[in-house]
Design brief:
This protein is an alpha/beta fold. The protein contains 22 helices and 13 strands. The strands form four sheets. The protein has a four-stranded parallel β-sheet, with helices on both faces.
């Protein structure tokens, strides 16, 4: 609500100066750095420059306009060039809390994305490789962005663009033929294939012929060789079985699993268009598109006629635009792929599809580090996500056993708490930054963790469970107290926080907000007893606590985290 008041003040003043002085202004409305100065402030600097009138006249005029148009304002106290505004805290608090209580999980919803469609390409693991901690970022950032955008009114299409095509499958098949035992592989497909993948990459360093054999094997898959296609299909199916277990644990789903192979028969029209527009250039037998002096050329076809990642991505963009008619296409892919997406947009611009190019956004993210180093499947330096999730679940279960040994459904609650620990630890970091993976820190029930937020929600639930209260009958005078109104202001900002997270494609905005809200409530709880004799005070404290829990739970949902009622 406070954001809406700020916006209304801005609009009102800008209209006033346009109507009365015929000048367009950009009025700044902000919150003072020192809360003691007021709830809202209007700096007059920009008006001084535009109107060139005495400061005292401007400040008096702003004060008069605001007093006339905003009955919710209690006091206006100018200090130098700042017009400081004190709101009627009681009125604001009642409005915010009633809104939260009535809207429940719709609280904080927005319509900024109404009638717009966003396609999100995320997770997209390469098949035949273990689902590692490194895959967590794309999966959970993408999943959270989908939920945040839906909260803002967007229609979303989530796509798991499986890495089920490319030379690595030729490499895998060569490794199986050279060193594999099919009976052993069948017992534990992904682990055994992973070992073979590490081995062939090591062998390739000393034997250049292996790379050529891998390219030839993949070409056979592309050409439809029955034996090689059958091996490729088997590898794909086994990989999907493992991935589905991970997605089930993470509570993640997708609208489409169309991987790279889906676009095999959709690339020819793209290549033909490039040919017709004179954009394809031959270079040592390969086909490229020159992108100017600032970018390396985009390689569209290898000299042996094989296609490349960018060729399939071009086909995918055109197909998805036709299928979903999206307004934005988000690619939640690591920062290392920046050049690829710059080239992709460059080729689309060259083809004359500038609108399509401008609708593409690369949502980059940093690395998950292990002992300060990047994890790598090729080098075998990888931590399997399934193992980490199991460790986090076991660690959470141990803490639950210690705190609440008689708790029912311990296994299910430990699963939710353990998964929340891993997911929140990832999403609380701004996505573009690298971070060190430390399971011991992330599972703590105190500190900046997912379990801390869940524990705060559970604490509120346990308090409210045994209390009858009426959220329509409140002791409004309590909101004059700073620790009461601080929570009200935070609750009031939830919608703008969600919108900012959507605008910046940054789940960390919501994660940090939830931590601040939980800390404010725990401070409040240390100062105030919730269940008191006075019924109006009890109603007020319970309603405030209820609104906090509701907001924490909804914020956790937007991060892809399941809340719990007991732990």
């Amino acid at each position: 609500m406070i954001e809406e008041i700020k916006h209304s003040i801005k609009s009102c003043l800008e209209k006033y100066y346009l109507d009365n002085y015929q000048v367009e202004t950009n009025i700044i409305v902000e919150e003072p750095k020192n809360p003691a100065m007021g709830d809202i402030a209007v700096p007059a600097f920009s008006l001084l420059k535009t109107l060139k009138r005495p400061l005292s006249d401007l400040v008096s005029e702003i004060k008069e306009v605001l007093a006339k148009n905003f009955p919710i304002i209690k006091e206006i106290n100018p200090t130098g060039p700042f017009v400081n505004i004190l709101l009627n805290k009681e009125e604001v608090a009642v409005e915010v809390l009633q809104q939260a209580v009535s809207l429940k999980d719709k609280f904080g919803s927005s319509q900024i994305g109404k009638d717009k469609t966003v396609v999100l390409d995320y997770s997209s693991p390469n098949i035949a490789k273990a689902f590692s901690v490194g895959h967590l970022r794309s999966t959970m950032i993408g999943n959270s962005l989908k939920l945040i955008l839906q909260k803002c009114g967007y229609k979303t299409v989530s796509i798991n663009y499986l890495g089920d095509w490319g030379t690595q499958f030729g490499k895998m098949i060569v490794a199986i033929e050279k060193w594999g035992n099919l009976a052993e592989i069948a017992k534990d497909p992904i682990n055994e294939l992973g070992k073979l993948y590490v081995r062939i990459n090591d062998e390739e360093k000393n034997d250049p012929q292996i790379a050529e054999l891998s390219r030839e094997a993949f070409k056979k898959i592309e050409d439809g060789d029955p034996k090689y296609v059958e091996m490729w299909k088997w590898i794909r199916e086994e990989s999907l079985k493992e991935s589905s277990e991970i997605y089930k644990l993470l509570n993640v789903d997708f609208d489409s699993y169309n991987g790279e192979a889906f676009y095999n028969d959709k690339m020819t029209p793209v290549v033909n268009e490039l040919e017709e527009k004179g954009l394809l250039v031959e270079d040592q037998g390969a086909k490229i598109v020159n992108l100017g002096d600032d970018l390396p050329p985009a390689l569209i076809k290898r000299s042996d006629g094989g296609t490349l990642y960018i060729t399939r991505d071009l086909a995918a963009v055109f197909w998805r635009k036709k299928e979903y008619n999206f307004d934005k296409a988000l690619y939640v892919v690591g920062g290392e792929q920046k050049l690829h997406f710059t080239q992709l947009k460059g080729v689309l611009n060259k083809m004359g599809h500038a609108d399509l190019a401008s609708s593409i956004e690369h949502i980059n993210f940093g690395l998950v580090l292990k002992d300060g180093k990047k994890m790598s499947t090729r080098k075998g330096n990888v931590v399997k996500l399934y193992d980490i999730l199991m460790q986090a679940i076991e660690a959470s279960k141990a803490q639950i056993e210690e705190k609440n040994p008689n708790l029912e459904n311990k296994e299910e609650i430990a699963r939710k708490v353990g998964v929340s620990a891993v997911v929140f630890n990832d999403l609380k970091n701004f996505r573009a930054l690298d971070y060190e993976f430390d399971i011991n820190q992330m599972v703590k029930f105190d500190g900046l963790t997912g379990p801390y937020l869940q524990y705060t929600s559970v604490r509120i639930n346990s308090i409210l469970n045994s209390i009858q209260f009426d959220s329509n009958q409140l002791e409004q005078s309590l909101f004059i107290k700073a620790h009461y109104f601080e929570i009200v202001k935070q609750l009031a900002s939830f919608k703008s926080v969600v919108e900012r997270a959507a605008d910046e494609y940054a789940p960390s905005v919501i994660a940090k907000y939830l931590l601040t809200l939980a800390q404010s409530f725990n401070k409040f709880y240390s100062l105030e007893k919730i269940n008191v004799e006075d019924q109006l005070v009890k109603n007020t404290n319970c309603t405030l606590a209820y609104a906090v829990r509701l907001t924490i739970n909804e914020g956790l949902r937007l991060l892809g985290i399941e809340y719990v009622d007991k732990m």
